[in-house]
Amino acid sequence: VEYAPYTGPAIREYLQVVEKRLRKAVLDALKGKVDSKLSGTGMTLPVLPEVPSFGYSSRFIKRQIAAKPVGPVEKAGEVSDHDFDVDLNDTRIGSGPYLPGEKFAPKKKPGDGEGKDGDGDGDGDGDGDGNGNGKGDGDGDGDGDGTTPVPGRGGGSGNPKDLKIPLKLLGEILQEVLELPNIRRTVGKIPEVQTIRRGVYAKPTGNQLWPETIVVAIEKARAIRRGKGLPWDSTVPVMDLIKEALPLLEPADVRVSGRMEKPLPDFDAVLVVNVDLTGSMGGERIENAKNLVFNMEAMLRAKYKNVTIEFVGFDSTARRMSRKDIFSKFFGGGTAYASAIELDKKILEEYPNSRYNKYIVTIGDGETGDAADYMRGLSELQPDLQYAGLVITNRSLAGVEDLVEGHKQLKAEWPWVGFGHLRTSADMYDVLRNLFKGDQQD
Fold first, then answer.
1. What stretch of H or E contains 245?
2. What does the alpha-carbon distance between residue 335 and residue 340 come to, in Å, rounded to a whole number?
């Protein structure tokens, strides 16, 4: 333990706080417990503890000053322009063109203005215009409570609790609990490994494990006490032992978590994501759908190096789209789910079965009149697929029974069918878990 105010230990403690809180923060965001913002490069969400903020009211300060008793002036009637001062009794004293008992203000600086029409107190900057109507080329007093953030200054710069999590790191967190189902070994590219934490090691640097390190400290304190002939058994309070031993801890006493590499299946895969971009998907539905795609992509790209993701957007016509377009475009026309499955067939023909595991996930409100055609096309593709998923973005499943029941019937014949109900952003984690829970299918 280092007690000197060095930057290094402070940064290390900061990083450990982030590491301990980060995983829970991401999962809370997926469950809708905290607000998050997505961008093309990652997610911004509250990770750090609440930072207390302080402010003052200029109205209160001015009232305090005005309430102070006025002290005697030195020479009544003699003109002077000195600033006021405060004596040991906190009484205002000074010199100037005022008689005893009269209140006076501090010396004005060039350019000071005096606000008008203000029903509050506050400070404003500008050429004679404060929050009230100041006169002069400088500061003016007028409306305001003195606490409103000014753009570009102070509190207008963002929430200090928030951290931006890069896409890769977000995926690494998600990959701990999610994985592709029904993976089949293929003639892939490069075998992959996954680094996981396991075991405890004595090492001065790394992810420090304080409970294990404290145990070492307690044992050291007991050994020292025993050598001095002092009480050392369970009769000694644990906190006393810790206080005695912490200053004596050496780098060799620190315990950190170990890491090991876990081999992942050798395979290549392609996932086709169909997104309903019709008019009925406006508002919360399309926002949740695209957030789901974002999280799916983050998880898959972090965990599997050899996964290709194809995007299909559709209204009455399906279109093969780039990543940029799937997140930015919205068609708003009619609905034809069958057009998506027909385009999926053409796309998947480009990927040989001998090399690729093939997956399809369709996301939309399910409000379509061609559910039977869609299910027929999906059934025809099923022999080439490892998995098929459906996510409904409606608050209710009323009116989309044909599509939902079609998937349930297919699942009765073939277990690798998943379903998720994305009613609100709070369902995000449950939907991801239902779609990507590996081989633990119901």
1. helix 238-245
2. 10
Q: How far is CA 118 from the centre of its chain?
A: 41
Angle between helices 284-303 and 428-435 in degrees, nearest 10: 50
- Is the Cβ–Cβ distance between 255 and 212 less than 8 Å? yes
Nearest in space to 359 (alpha carbons), one of 287, 418, 422, 314: 418
Pick from 383, 384, 386: which is nearest to 361 by CA? Answer: 386
Our measurement of the distance from residue 223's CA atom to the centroid of its chain's CA atoms, rounded to an integer in Å, reads 45
CA torsion 72→77→80→85, rounded to 10°? 10
Q: Which two tokens stand for residue 272?
A: 């086709």
- In 316-400, which ranges are continuous DSSP H helix? 323-328, 337-348, 371-381
State the residue for tokens 């973005």.
393
Measure the CA angle with vertex 297, ends 299 and 316; round to 5°.
Answer: 145
Q: In 5-29, which positions are buried (b, 16+ CB within 10 angstroms) versus exposed (e)?
A: eeeeeeeeeeeeeeeebbeebbbbb
Six-digit token string for 423 = 């009613």
CA 12 to chain centre: 21
Rounded Cα distance, 133 and 118, in Å: 8
CA distances from 71 to 85, 86, 108 (A): 10, 9, 20
CA distances from 93 to 66, 86, 104, 338 (A): 13, 6, 10, 88
Q: What is the pLDDT of residues 175-227, one digit of tens each?
A: 666 778 888 776 545 455 555 556 677 777 777 777 888 888 888 888 888 88
pTM: 0.54
Pairing of strands 356-364, 268-276: parallel
**Structure tokens that stand for 434 in this block:** 């239902």
152 close to 26: Cβ distance less than 8 angstroms: no
| Amino acid symbol at 298 | A
Secondary structure (DSSP) of 185-198: --S-SS--EEEEEE
The percent of the chain in helix, strand and coil, each rounded to the nearest 5, is 35, 20, 45
Q: Mind listing the pLDDT tens digit for each residue in 3-40?
A: 455 566 677 777 777 777 777 877 777 666 777 776 65
